[in-house]
Design goal:
This protein has about 300 residues and is α+β, with helices and mostly antiparallel strands. It has seven helices and 17 strands. About 25% of the residues lie in helices and about 30% in strands.
């Protein structure tokens, strides 16, 4: 190793999950992940720990040499010059794995405490309306449980979740021209972001709503059969493992999933999906919640 290389180690936590990142390189850095905005948006309450507890790194970045990324079943290794965005995405995926190992499942879903029930708006296959549904439910007096991510334990209780409604800034290397300005949907449907209070207790998810908001939709509400429930729920959980993601041109996300993990996840999905699920089509969040009100 060149004498000029810097070594830097950081550790992050989400609930009981821990993740260690090691940096090796000639470019001086004070932090490996300089901005935790994306991690907090995609997970919840991500902390940079003052002291290390892990003896091995989960992610290693050697900024020198030819660009590459690989996963050996335990550690993700980056080589060469990488922007911040891919590193943040991998940190989220690896933290999701560590959460699963502790019996905690990150759902791509928002949730509210509404009419004495915990209602989850599931971002399933299409992901059209979980944030707008959550905002409208809170506007009607609901308490916020979570926004982008709801973390659920093995018993089906929502135990923690993200609190940012939308991502304010995308990191270098992950910019998206196809995504509307973050606040555009809020402006369109509400004029501005309403205020609300938080529900900070753990609670069993009582009802799951898979929303589909589109200005052309006629309103409809349909109970979902077991296959649909499990299909949409698995989509929500798999969202964190980035199997359909490019980290950078020519570099797909290494596969971090395994058959045993998939089987265990499917078993959890089957158990979680025993509760009531509704698929709701609506032109606006207001019409969506009118339908939800009728079944609560």
């Amino acid at each position: 190793m060149a004498a000029t290389q810097q070594r830097l180690t950081e550790e992050f936590s989400v609930g009981p999950a821990r993740l260690r990142l090691d940096y090796l390189g000639g470019e001086p850095r004070t932090e490996i992940l300089e901005d935790l905005n994306f991690l907090n948006y995609r997970l919840a309450d991500v902390d940079r720990l003052a002291q290390l507890t892990l003896s091995q790194p989960d992610v290693v970045w050697n900024s020198d040499g030819e660009k590459s990324v690989a996963y050996d079943g335990r550690t993700m290794t980056f080589n060469g010059p990488w922007p911040a965005g891919p590193l943040q995405k991998v940190a989220v995926a690896m933290l999701a794995l560590r959460l699963e190992s502790r019996g905690l499942h990150p759902f791509h879903a928002s949730a509210v405490r509404y009419r004495a029930k915990t209602v989850m708006f599931l971002g399933g296959e299409s992901n059209h309306g979980k944030s707008m549904g959550q905002i409208e439910a809170c506007r009607r007096g609901g308490l916020l449980v979570s926004t982008e991510t709801t973390i659920v334990d093995e018993t089906g209780c929502a135990v923690m979740g993200s609190k940012d409604v939308y991502l304010k800034k995308r990191a270098a290397g992950t910019e998206r021209a196809d995504k509307a300005a973050p606040a555009r949907g809020v402006e369109k449907f509400f004029g501005g972001l309403p205020t609300w209070e938080h529900f900070d207790q753990s609670s069993s998810v009582d009802v799951v709503v898979v929303p589909a908001i589109d200005g052309n939709f006629e309103p409809s509400l349909n109970p979902m059969i077991p296959f649909e429930r499990q299909f949409q729920t698995l989509h929500s959980l798999q969202n964190y493992f980035l199997l359909n993601e490019l980290l950078a041109p020519e570099w797909p996300m290494p596969i971090i999933d395994t058959e045993p993990l998939r089987r265990a996840r499917a078993d959890f999905v089957a158990r979680f999906s025993e509760r009531p699920y509704y698929f709701v089509r609506a032109a606006t969040p207001q019409v969506l919640m009118d339908a939800v009100d009728r079944v609560l």
